[in-house]
Amino acid sequence: MPEHSSAEDLPRRPRQPHGTIAFVALFGVVLPIAALLFESFTGMCRQIFFDPLPTPLHFILYATIPLANARLLLALVRGEAVPPRWALLHTFSAGVAVFYSLVFLPISPIAAIAIIAFGIGLLGLSPMLALLCAVFARKALKSRSGQPPGKLWKGIALAFLVLLAIDAPSTLTRIGMQMAASDSAATRLRGIQLLRKAGDEKMMLRLCYRQAGQATDLLGTLFTSQTESDPEQARTTFYRVTGTVFNSHPAPLHRSMRDWERTFDNDRGGTSVGQRVNDIALVASRMDGSIDANAALGYMEWTMEFHNKSPGQQEGRAEIALPPGGVVSRATLWIDGEEREAAFGGRAQVREAYAKVVRQSRDPLLVTTAGNDRVLVQLFPIPPSGNMKIRLGITVPMAPPAQGAMHLQLPAFSERNFDLAPDLRHAVWFESTAPLKGSPGLNAQAGPRDLYAVRGELEEPSPWQPMHTVWAPASRPAALAWSPDQISNDGKIVVQKFSETAAMPPQRVAVVIDGSLSMQQRKRQLLEGLASLPANIEMAVVFADDEKPALFLHNSANSLLTRQYLAQLEFKGGRDNSEALGAAWDWAAMSSRGAIVWIHGAQPLASQSAEALRQRFERRASQVALYDLALERGPNEIAQQLKGVSAVPGFGNVGDDLRKLLAQWQPGATQTVLSRERRSGSGMPLSSRSSQHLVRLWAANEVTAMSADPGRSGAAVTLATRYQLVTAVSGAVVLETREQYKDAGLEPVPPGSVPTIPEPETWAMIMVAALMLAWHRRYRSQ
User: Fold this and answer.
1) Is-contact 322 375, C-beta < 8 A?
2) Please, which pLDDT band fits residue 644 given cuts at 50, 70 and 90?
């Protein structure tokens, strides 16, 4: 009897895994591709949480997930096995999915909520869903062939090794940043040394900005430090590691779906330059000036125009290095095409007026000092896709005669939050009754009425380049110059006298050398300059290193030892010079006439030891003189806290500049003594009359002397306001309306009282003197 087979005994064809196919297609291929493209174009995760795709290589690795799942999907549809090469890619991509699943795990609850609220939470869950797709597809393929495609653990291990290797710089940077923020000095130093060797400079720069979404890595998240949310600490670390100030670099690109986020300025309205804003640029600049060689002074006006290409209002901020002894005596702002003069007042008063108007998004300009011979300029708002124009008037004493000429250094930026237009040139024009010369790019010209000029176009010097210079090559200051005090209008005059006396050299001189990396390129010049150390003075060298500073005593009888010591010095990163200056002060103060020669680059750090240094100079103000020879313009937090610092003019070669300074202390050397006093006077020679800038320089010196006495600070503010000067106790602000001035208790200066180029009375007196001289010569010839 034939055997009948039942339906159960027939061989079954494998069921087509339609559910698995649909799941893999949607969540293993389409969703990862959508997540990859969405994050690449919008940067949403980078802005809010972290950057899952910090490099192009991360993008490629993440792209292996949908690619490998697509090949698994094809194998499922065709009912075929996965080729070995694709099996390896599948296991590797599964490892990438595991890695990103762990990275996204902390924000997965937020992503789940976002699915309901915004419909985009699936993007945050895409690595986990893609991993599930890979697991389901493996099971479906195994049920057919009995053999899963590839060894999963090998691919995962390989993926982890590759991703950890790629993220190693970020991981080491996070570890180093955490160590650099430690309370332990030894740990901080080890962190700085680690970052100098293996740190990611781009990542450190991003941490200097208060932006969400820094580059992340799985292992590095275990070492998240306070620098992630404290840009000030990150900025300090950045300088210690690189030796450069963070805002001397272009701001890192911050892509955003919202333009205001891309250009948001966290330092707006603050008291420092702060972060760079790449959408602001200085697009036009001109410097006009006049020089009175007889009185050894000048006046110049710097007109600047800024452009904002962003869709939102922006603030421009800059720290400007003035010529030594220079003082801002005029500030104007163009509002609706009309030039408005500033009001001068107490430092706190003008800053409060500026801050109040900034909050209202109106039109102020603020100018305050930022240490010796420096001012901080802030202007807001630079309109969207618009321009803002300002002018600064600067009264300048000429440098004492050196090499047979009087020099006037032009102002330059020491720090700024804006860019310079690619074709920007400063249009410079200076005039005088004496022949003038200038830096390369400035051409000497003879003008009408026996006036001489230099004019030309100059590029903005880099921070390590010297400031541009104008000088009178064949002139020396007159022994006597005077000017009536027309500001007080009480019949008194200001008299200036130059005289030559024997130099009084210090008994002890400590030379402090900044150990920052920026000094390395000047090392040879520095060694040449220090070779001329005077033999008649006790000398010591203090090197500002990462470790506690130590003194090296110079032996004039065996200068070879000093040269050997200097030759082995190593310049690295950025060094805080506060402790070295303190050690130098302690040694120099053992004599009745001590001095410190400080040779340095930028000093953006305000450490605790700076306060102890300030105490020394305040308690014994005249015991140790500090000569500041800056080889690089940039923020100088140390000098901002000290008073009575003597700036040493720098002309590009530190060896020559140092030799000129040390030559003043050689036996038999003479020095130029300048004195200014305000007194009653009459019968002064007309030919010696100068301009009101002589009065302003006298007032600036008086304010400096008065502000050193806490009991006379109020009188110092009154004097600075009366003579319209920006000093350590006063500032200038331009507001938009009379009501704003009234609310702030300020009064803008009358337009007729501000200095101009040239001052009318100056050239009138010159013409009168020239006519009298011509008449006198003609009378004698008859």
Assistant:
1) yes
2) confident
pLDDT of residue 17: 60
Start-to-end C-alpha separation, the chain: 163
pLDDT in tens, 351-360: 998 888 877 7
- φ, ψ for residue 494, nearest 5 deg: -110, 125
Residues 460, 421: Cα–Cα separation, whole Å:
11
Angstrom distance (rounded) from CA 39 to CA 660? 60
Burial class (CB in 10 A: 0-12, 13-18, 19+), 127: buried
pLDDT digits (tens, 9 = 90+) for 231-273: 888 999 999 999 999 999 888 876 544 444 455 778 888 888 9
Of 439, 395, 455, 499, the residue nearest 762 (C-alpha): 395
**pLDDT-derived band of residue 602, with 50, 70 and 90 as boundaries?**
very high
Cβ atoms 556, 590 nearer than 8 A: no
Residue 379 pairs in a beta bridge with 316, 365
Query: Residue holding tokens 């820094």?
Result: 214
Strands 365-369 and 730-734: antiparallel
- Cis amide prior to 440 (ω within 30 degrees): no
Provide the 3-class DSSP secondary structure of residue 345: strand
Residue 44: alpha-carbon gap to chain centroid = 29
Q: What is the mean pLDDT of residues 200-212?
A: 81
Residue 546, SS3? Answer: coil
Residue 124 pLDDT more than 70? yes
Sheet holding 670-680, edge to edge: 480-484, 492-502, 670-680
What's at 145, amino acid-wise?
S
CA distances from 260 to 43, 255, 257, 280, 499 (A): 15, 11, 9, 14, 59
> Cβ(509)–Cβ(648) under 8 Å?
no
User: Does pLDDT of 214 surpass 90?
Assistant: no
Look at residues 694, 722, 717, 707 and name the one whose alpha carbon lies nearest to residue 644. Answer: 707
* Residue 409 main-chain phi, psi, to 5 deg: -85, 135
Quote the distance between the C-alpha of residue 24 and its chain's center: 52
Whose tokens are 């100018």? That residue is: 367
Cis omega (within 30 of 0) for bond into 411 = no
What is the pairing mode between strands 419-420 and 280-292? parallel
Residue with more model confidence, 267 or 436: 436
Confidence bin at 47 (pLDDT 50/70/90): low
Q: Say yes or no to pLDDT of 315 above 90.
A: yes
Domains of the chain: 18-166 (no CATH), 168-242 (no CATH), 504-668 (3.40.50.410)
Residue type, 527: L
**How many CB atoms are closer than 10 A to CB 770?**
14
| Whole-angstrom distance, CA of residue 56 vs CA of residue 101 | 19
Asked whether the predicted pLDDT for residue 764 surpasses 60, the reply is: no
Angle between helices 56-78 and 122-145 (to 10 degrees): 40
CA 605 to mean position of chain CA atoms: 12
**In the β-sheet with 437-438, what is the strand arrangement from edge to edge?**
406-409, 469-472, 437-438
Q: Which residue has the tokens 């982890």?
A: 160
The residue type of 694 is: L
Radius of gyration of the chain (CA): 34
Can you tell me the mean pLDDT for 76-99? Answer: 84
